[in-house]
Design goal:
Layout: E1 3-7, H1 11-22, E2 28-33, H2 48-51, H3 63-66, E3 69-72, E4 76-81, E5 88-92, E6 95-99, E7 101-104, E8 108-110, H4 125-134, E9 140-144, H5 148-159, E10 163-168, H6 175-178, H7 180-183, H8 187-192, E11 196-199, E12 203-207, E13 210-213, E14 218-220, E15 223-226, E16 230-232, E17 248-250, E18 261-263, E19 268-272, E20 277-279, H9 284-289, H10 291-298, E21 310-315, E22 318-324, E23 331-335, E24 343-349, E25 352-359, H11 362-373, H12 380-383
Helix pairs in contact: 1-10
Length: about 425
């Protein structure tokens, strides 16, 4: 392999280019990106950039040592593979490029709401800068969707003195991700921040001056933000011969149906042996870690990417972290009352830890994530005690002692609470 093209100028593309070099690839390497910026970090867009605390999230990279050519502002348009021999041609807005190795890392595109009125999404640096300019004190900001992005935008807008309303079609925030039992626990966060949250409300269209709801009513707004999800950016692969469904279908090593092509990041629908299903995970952790396996696979080496899932959000002054996948769980255990300022929920199947959600309890998340990877079985009684570190609640493992997190709010918290749990629809 002498000529590898990485299609996609985000975190996944940059990390894969770097992994190829560290794993010994010496040939020509080119990164093609639709944006004019060098690869940058996206999570700060709804946090530091919207807040005005940062305007540059460029990812650190030594381009000279990478020996990677940059073709920025060039969008992939089509892909053709050669018949009977490896490689093919990538068609871009600046012309065709030959390759014998290909990395597909084109990410995802935000879903926009119907209607001819102006609306914002937050996916690119320009998106964030444009929305930030509209977040003026007193502005009526209407956010559609109470998911991760919606909550983070609401946090930034409220801090800037905007009059913020969030419309959510489901009965609770985050119902599709965490389930309604946990989603309802976040409702009070909106009120604390001075944000109006309206649940069970569907938007029919975005109009000039606001939105029209499915029941015909209208809601006036100066700024409308769509936070209703994203779709993998894979339309350009039509007719390529690759298996493309919700994303580019790949195996556990990120290989496509062509040996000379891998897909990684938000656009890759990869097979997980751990969970026995195909996953399409649009989170920073996957874009950051999966490239190691993708690069190894492209170079013809054994590889697999199958860690416990992980994602996080910062909203309304809280850090919310989730690890694992709770579809197989049959009970939930709370460490601390969810009415307290910081708490943790554990999803357990029998005694085996399947997933953990930590609100301002980072040590629980770190230790719980490790126990999920180990398929650890817990002593449920001990697991419900917030003063016992999670690492010390494994059956058959002697405790090492020391408080789990500390904090006076934990001393009077209930020791346990069990509820049934829903599935987590990731794919």
């Amino acid at each position: 392999m002498k000529n590898v093209i990485v299609v996609g100028g985000g975190l996944a593309g940059l990390r894969t280019a770097g992994a190829l070099r560290t794993q010994g690839y010496q040939g020509e390497l080119t990164l093609v990106g639709a944006e004019h910026h060098r690869p940058y970090d996206r999570p700060p867009l709804t946090k530091a950039v919207l807040a005005g605390e940062s305007d540059d999230t460029t990812l650190p990279a030594d381009w000279e040592r990478l020996r990677c050519g940059l073709r920025l502002g060039q969008r992939a348009r089509a892909l053709r593979f050669h018949d009977g021999r490896p490689g093919g041609v990538l068609e871009t807005t600046a012309g065709p490029l030959d390759f014998d190795g290909l990395v597909i890392a084109t990410g995802a595109t935000p879903i926009r709401l119907p209607g001819d009125g102006p609306q914002h999404v937050v996916r690119t640096l320009e998106d964030a800068r444009g929305l930030r300019a509209s977040l003026r004190p007193g502005a009526r900001v209407l956010i559609v969707g109470a998911g991760w992005v919606g909550a983070e935008v609401a946090t930034a807008a409220a801090k800037k003195g905007c009059r913020v309303t969030v419309l959510e079609a489901a009965a609770t925030p985050l119902a599709a991700v965490l389930g309604p039992e946990l989603g309802v626990l976040t409702v009070g966060w909106y009120a604390e921040a001075g944000v109006e949250l309206r649940l069970g409300v569907e938007v029919a269209s975005v109009d000039h001056g606001g939105v029209t709801l499915a029941d015909g009513r209208s809601v006036q707004a100066d700024v409308v933000v769509a936070g209703v999800g994203a779709r993998p950016e894979v339309g350009w692969l039509a007719g390529s011969g690759l298996d493309v469904q919700r994303g580019v279908v790949v195996d556990s090593a990120l290989r496509t149906t062509r040996a000379e092509a891998v897909a990684v990041g938000d656009c890759a629908a990869w097979w997980s042996e751990r969970y026995g299903r195909r996953l399409l995970v649009e989170h920073w952790e996957t874009a950051d870690k999966a490239p190691e396996a993708a690069a190894a696979a492209l170079l013809g080496r054994p590889a697999a990417y199958d860690p416990p899932l992980y994602f996080w959000s910062e909203q309304f002054g809280r850090t919310v972290q989730y690890a694992g996948h709770h579809s197989a769980a049959d009970q939930m255990v709370f460490r601390c009352s969810p009415d307290s300022s910081c708490w943790t929920a554990l999803w357990v199947n029998g005694n085996r830890l399947e997933a953990v959600l930590a609100v301002d309890r980072p040590r629980d998340l770190v230790q719980g994530r490790r126990l999920i990877a180990e398929s650890a079985e817990l002593d449920i009684r001990l697991a419900a005690d917030p003063q016992v570190p999670l690492r010390d609640v494994v059956r058959g493992r002697p405790p090492r002692g020391g408080p789990a997190q500390g904090g006076p709010q934990e001393l009077s918290a209930p020791r346990t609470s069990l509820i049934a749990v829903p599935d987590l629809p990731l794919a």
